[in-house]
Every structure is written in C-alpha cells, then in structure tokens.
Design a protein that fits this description.
Length: 114
C-alpha cells in the first residue's frame, strides 16, 4: 500500500486547512485510515481515524475542531482542520492499517502562526 498525502502549509491562528491522503495498491476492504502528528521534541500522537465502515475516533486535543472523512471509494481520507491553534503545528502523517499491516505516508508540515 502506498499513501500519498497533500495539503498542509502555513495558516494563521483560527484558520482552516484540509489534508488529503490517497491509498493505492493492494487495499483490503476492511481497514482504518487516519492521521497522526509529531511536533518537534514530542512523540507522535493520534489525531483522528476512520474505519472502512465509517467509525471515527479523535484525539482529545482536536475534538470539536477537526473532522475526518473518506470518499465514496474509501481510498482517500480527508482531515478538515478548523480553529487551528499554534499547538497544532506539527508534521502530519497519514496512516493505513489493515489486519497486521501498517503503512505510513511521507508526512506533511502544518504550521499555525500566532
């Protein structure tokens, strides 16, 4: 499975941004796609995830501000980020899990200026 992420960049506090990630290759129908992030000097943390049947899960720090969704083909996942804060600044990584298989995208930088 290959993951191609897009989006990210510089945004002001309170602004919005959308990340996209498309999976390609041998994709099993039962899977979970999601986003994680890692800020400098911190460990990687879960942002949000969505299963192939639509169950969603969010990290506490983004609940109510971020929304994860998938397209109809279920190969692309979107992360809509609203009310962005400087502490949201991090490299965001797309993730794909199916059974024991776990794949990561290349990471995209999101920087929120104060």
């Amino acid at each position: 499975v290959q993951l191609q992420a897009s989006g990210g960049g510089l945004v002001q506090t309170g602004g919005s941004q959308r990340l996209s990630c498309t999976a390609s290759g041998s994709i099993f129908s039962s899977n979970v796609m999601g986003w994680y992030r890692q800020a400098p000097g911190k460990s990687r943390e879960k942002v949000a995830s969505i299963s192939s049947v639509g169950f969603t899960s969010y990290g506490d720090s983004v609940k109510g501000r971020f929304r994860i969704s998938r397209d109809g083909a279920k190969t692309t996942v979107y992360l809509q980020m609203n009310s962005l804060k400087p502490e949201d600044t991090a490299v965001y990584y797309c993730n794909f899990v199916s059974g024991v298989e776990n794949y990561w995208g290349q990471g995209t930088q999101v920087t929120v200026s104060s």
